[in-house]
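Problem statement: downstream parser choked on a complex file, so we are re-checking the raw output for the flavin mononucleotide run. The parser issue turned out to be on our end (a line-ending mismatch), but while we're here, posting the original submission so the record is complete.
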Amino acid sequence: MEFYEAVSSRRTVRDFQKKEIEANIVQRIIEAGLQAPTNDHMRQWEFVIVNDKPTRLRIIGKLNQNRTESDAVAAVDSWGFRDDCQREMYIDAIPKQHKMLLNAGCLIIPCFRQKTPLLQPVNLSALNGFASIWCCIENILLAAAAEGIYGVTRIPSISGESELIKETLKLPEGYEIPCYVALGYPTENAKQIEQHRPKAEDRIHVDKW
Ligand SMILES: Cc1cc2nc3c(=O)[nH]c(=O)nc-3n(C[C@H](O)[C@H](O)[C@H](O)COP(=O)(O)O)c2cc1C
């Protein structure tokens, strides 16, 4: 697939067929991730592929599997969201958080080396490892799209969620998790929310804003 085609075809998908992704394809996709730019040249990134269903269930154990569409509507109302597309995205996404991680054809937990407390950065450079792993994740999503595989990232944002993943997967000290990367083959009727896609000409400012 041509580069710009892969960029436009990459979309978030949360509805997956029950079909695993072959190990050699996963390896190829991660290989693309490992070519992303990195702050210190070292690419101190590791990837735990969680295929085992009981392990998946354990690491997502803090997520509420019973969130309904009306819970999601209440949440977006409480956040004061007005944009129709944005509301539709959250209303679709909130009830699917548990299921999408459980059903993904491949669940990747990217890990990066973080020497200082991630949530108490003293300056922007202290976040370089976090920024670099996100470059890696975007390469993974684009490479996956080029393979006809789509997915979603989820931030482990519930209290104790990140710690539970680290403990279950036995991460060594000094590694952090930016997100889950759930990949798979979309179901036939996988929901696609209209993308909010600003025009570059409206967002470019020359010489001053
Ligand atoms: C940093 C980041 C965090 C995200 N967190 C979540 C998440 O927790 N759960 C989820 O379902 N989607 C999550 N997403 C996916 C976004 O909802 C999605 O990228 C956005 O709605 C735009 O849609 P598109 O990817 O199809 O263009 C996240 C994406 C990014 C880049």
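For whoever reads this later: Residues 11-12, 14, 89, 93, 152-155, 195 surround flavin mononucleotide (CB under 6 Å).
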